[in-house]
């Protein structure tokens, strides 16, 4: 238990920490009272007070000195370390004082702090409550758990060299690869004209296995992030959807050939997505942009075909929706590789576009209640599309502050020597090497 030092607040960086002298009568009296209260409180809480500690030397009461003292001998012995409590008190004018209690766990590397501004008569009482919060059994148990967790961390982490998780998008890529492989196998079986389940099920198993294997090989060879995986899934699935929709709109015969169009579109989208990732990585926001752009393009493309035909009934706009999805995917894919945006912002923009389209359709609904003509149908569809675009623009405008921050290079320096360690039956052995450490 170190003696109460002053100052305690923001002035501590400018003035040296020191024990209050009799020339500081207000702080001196309260410091003596706080010292006596905290010493009794520590023992009441079940701690053994190390009375042999002389306290810090003048000029040696900073944060690093607290951590150093916690790592050395205490009442429990030379190997256990000791809790260190450093109360601080500062006169704040009138009858107010700033009370700061700084605590470091045994062999800890972090400071736990409580700060309050209290009236003079309440300094000792509030100090006791603050100390109890910092030294409570739950706090002590958490400190022990933290220390055990730190002891299990690799030596590399202790040197500040962290190994980031490689290919965090492996699971997403594997799931989408398995499903796309199964879709390709099913499409091949349908295009062949063979309906025999004895052929279908082995093909499904083969396609799923090839999809999973390809995904795991890719994630093992390259560092595939979660955003990269979802970006590739957008290319595959929306490419396949656009191929099937275009084939339906063009009335491709026989019907089984339309699956081949879907497979072709999926592979084209997957190929373009892979090429985009060779030029740079895509984060989760970029992947959301790709999915959103394809979906919005499909909707607007369908509305565009209906507008061209001048009708809102008896026609399913497969062709427009397919081309809209394809162009939307291509445009959004290029955009995703150039911008940094949060997924939440993309979702809010999509919500704005959806609500805008609904509002436009509601406002124009009187045009299609009865006696629907081509002019009325086109007016309804145009207002709906305009409302959707306007809603997206409004959503984009009101979410300007949600742009994801981009990484910034802040310099670096070479490193050499022990850069890690390896576990062996006889203990851990150092690993030597060279590297470059930088901050982003």
Number of helices: 13
- Estimate the global geometry from the Cα principal axes: elongated
The strands making up the biggest β-sheet line up spatially as 3-4-5
Estimate what percentage of residues fall within beta strands.
5-15%
Task: Provide structural commentary.
- The chain has 440 residues and is an alpha+beta fold.
- The chain has 3 domains: 5-152, Double Stranded RNA Binding Domain (2-Layer Sandwich); 170-402, no CATH class; 409-440, no CATH class.
- Helices cover 56% and strands 12% of the residues.
- The chain has helices at 25-44, 63-70, 123-134, 137-151, 155-158, 170-191, 197-221, 226-249, 257-279, 284-309, 318-336, 343-364, 374-398; strands at 5-6, 18-19, 84-91, 96-104, 112-119, 412-424, 427-438.
- Strands 3-4-5 form a 3-stranded antiparallel β-sheet, sandwiched between helices. A two-stranded antiparallel sheet has the order 1-2. Strands 6-7 form a two-stranded antiparallel ribbon.
- Strand 3 and strand 4 form a beta hairpin.
- Helix 8 (226-249) packs antiparallel against helix 11.
- The longest helix has 26 residues, at 284-309.
- The radius of gyration is 34 Å and the shape is elongated.
- The protein starts with a strand and ends with a strand.
- 36% of the residues are buried.
Topology overview:
Blueprint: E1 5-6, E2 18-19, H1 25-44, H2 63-70, E3 84-91, E4 96-104, E5 112-119, H3 123-134, H4 137-151, H5 155-158, H6 170-191, H7 197-221, H8 226-249, H9 257-279, H10 284-309, H11 318-336, H12 343-364, H13 374-398, E6 412-424, E7 427-438
Antiparallel strand pairs: 1-2, 3-4, 4-5, 6-7
């Amino acid at each position: 238990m170190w003696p109460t030092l002053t100052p305690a607040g923001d002035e501590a960086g400018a003035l040296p920490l020191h024990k209050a002298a009799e020339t500081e009568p207000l702080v001196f009296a309260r410091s003596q009272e706080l010292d006596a209260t905290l010493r009794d409180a520590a023992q009441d809480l079940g701690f053994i007070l190390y009375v042999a500690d002389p306290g810090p030397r003048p000029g040696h009461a900073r944060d690093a000195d607290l951590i150093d003292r916690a790592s050395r001998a205490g009442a429990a012995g030379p190997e256990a370390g000791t809790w260190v409590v450093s109360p601080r008190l500062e006169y704040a004018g009138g009858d107010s004082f700033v009370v700061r209690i700084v605590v470091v766990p045994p062999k800890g590397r972090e400071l736990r702090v409580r700060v309050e501004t209290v009236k003079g008569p309440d300094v000792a009482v509030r100090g006791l409550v603050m100390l109890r919060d910092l030294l409570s059994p739950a706090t002590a148990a958490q400190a022990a758990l933290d220390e055990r967790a730190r002891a299990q961390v690799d030596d590399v982490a202790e040197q500040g060299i962290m190994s980031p998780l490689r290919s965090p998008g492996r699971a997403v890529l594997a799931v989408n690869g398995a499903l796309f492989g199964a879709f390709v196998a099913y499409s091949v079986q349908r295009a062949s004209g063979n309906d025999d389940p004895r052929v279908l099920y082995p093909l499904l198993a083969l396609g799923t296995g090839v999809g999973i294997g390809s995904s795991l090989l890719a994630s093992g060879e390259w560092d595939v992030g979660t955003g990269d995986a979802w970006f590739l899934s957008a290319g595959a699935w929306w490419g396949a959807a656009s191929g099937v929709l275009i084939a339906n709109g063009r009335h491709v015969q026989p019907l089984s050939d339309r699956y081949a169009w879907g497979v072709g579109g999926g592979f084209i989208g997957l190929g373009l997505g892979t090429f985009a990732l060779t030029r740079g990585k895509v984060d989760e926001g970029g992947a959301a942009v790709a999915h959103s752009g394809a979906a919005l393009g499909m909707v607007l493309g369908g509305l565009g075909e209906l507008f061209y035909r001048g009708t809102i009934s008896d026609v399913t706009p497969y062709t427009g929706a397919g081309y809209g999805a394809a162009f939307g995917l291509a445009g959004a894919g290029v955009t995703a590789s150039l911008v940094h945006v949060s997924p939440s912002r993309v979702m809010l923009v999509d919500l704005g576009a959806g609500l805008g389209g609904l509002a436009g359709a509601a406002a124009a609904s009187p045009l299609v209640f009865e006696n629907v003509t081509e002019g009325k149908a086109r007016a309804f569809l145009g207002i709906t599309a305009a409302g959707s675009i306007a809603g997206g623009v409004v959503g984009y405008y009101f979410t300007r502050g949600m742009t994801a921050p981009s990484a910034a290079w802040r310099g670096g320096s070479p490193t050499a020597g022990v850069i890690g360690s390896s576990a062996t039956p006889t203990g851990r052995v150092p690993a030597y090497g060279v590297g470059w450490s930088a901050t982003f």
